[in-house]
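Quick start: what a row looks like.
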Amino acid sequence: MTPYNLRQLNLMIDRINRYKKELIGLWGLIKDLEGLLNALENYDENWKDEFQSNWIELDVIYAVALDEGISFEDSSVKNDAFQTVDILKEMILSEIKGMILTDDKNL
């Protein structure tokens, strides 16, 4: 993994943490993750596809809440979003861990 891609993954983690601390909203998280995913260079397309499938769930949660006039602070919206965010975070952390283990083997 390149240092550039590692930075993008770390920025994803940062945005997720900011969302969970309520420093950014759901829409901001969705847009940030989309941009950071698209910024990954020469990255495993299968991983990106799986990440995008989970990321789309956040977009659906946002769209349904918006369409039905449900507050994004509503516990059901937050719970659904947090569950999806936890999946995304685990995917990212697993990638970072894999990169660290690979780099250690190459030393």
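That is the whole record. Helices lie at 3-20, 26-39, 45-68, 75-105. Residues 75-105 form the longest helix (31 residues).
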